[in-house]
Hints:
The chain is an alpha/beta fold. The protein is 38% helix and 15% strand. The protein has an eight-stranded mixed sheet, sandwiched between helices. Strands 1, 2, 5 and 6 form a four-stranded mixed sheet that branches. Helix 8 links the parallel strand 10 and strand 11. The longest helix has 14 residues. The chain starts with 6 loop residues before the first strand and ends in a 7-residue tail after the last helix.
Amino acid sequence: MRKSQTLLLERPARGALTRTGGFLTGFSHTLQPYIGCRFGCSYCYVSQSNVHRFFNGGLDWGNYVYPRVGIADRLESELEKMKRRDTLERCAIFMSSSTDPYQGAERTYKLTRNCLSVLEKMPPGLLVIQTRSPLAARDFDILTALGERCLLNFTIETGREDVRRTLTPHCPSIRQRLRTASQARDRGIATQLTVSPCLPYSSVDAFGKLLLEVSDRVIVDSFVAGDGGGGKRTARTGIPAMFARSGWEDWRSQEAAMNLYCWLSERIGDRAGWSQEGFTRQASQVTCGVH
């Protein structure tokens, strides 16, 4: 259970963009407006990372958030340097890999929106925004203006609310997320659903149809394929015990995720993606190697 204490502490941003690699190979940089994430998903790999160990202050994952104040100013300076060096077009940014840019603190600090305002003036080759929050709808004006240079990834790991409440109780409901994704697509924003990781669902047909009602682009991932450690990171979380208590299949099984991916592939072809290749497909089309 999450501790009742929550730490919210501003930290001046020393920089904005961070070089990336590993699972996100193909992207040149990540952009993290916050350190920590109030959603505190039980499976999040960040809880096993050096970032968490360094910043947690003795608190559990999900119980601290550090707004990186001034990050938009830092971002503007860094993008201006890229523009002068003629490397901005080859920059592919993932926002964010270790925090949700639209968690609750964003309502107050608006760091994500401030960064988007900078990116609107100096758009990179590609910006991918990863979130599960309906608050993203607030910024549809900027996302629309960014056009084809922006891709909104909306996380929807299951169609079952009982599963969501068990594994991610502090996250927005599935219905809210589906509605926001649908609204984004209606606005002409390139929108992609990420079933990452794929959690237990009712049936392939029911879940697949639910996803395709609001998006025609879907990425499917599993704990083993997507946690960056072949499942070792997930094994150190509470996921194995939660799956066992709930009577679900072995958390290490990729059968349900692969069945969903195959179902989607039969209907939307290469607009369905699997794990790392799916996440990095668009970025790989942008020439990276920014110096």
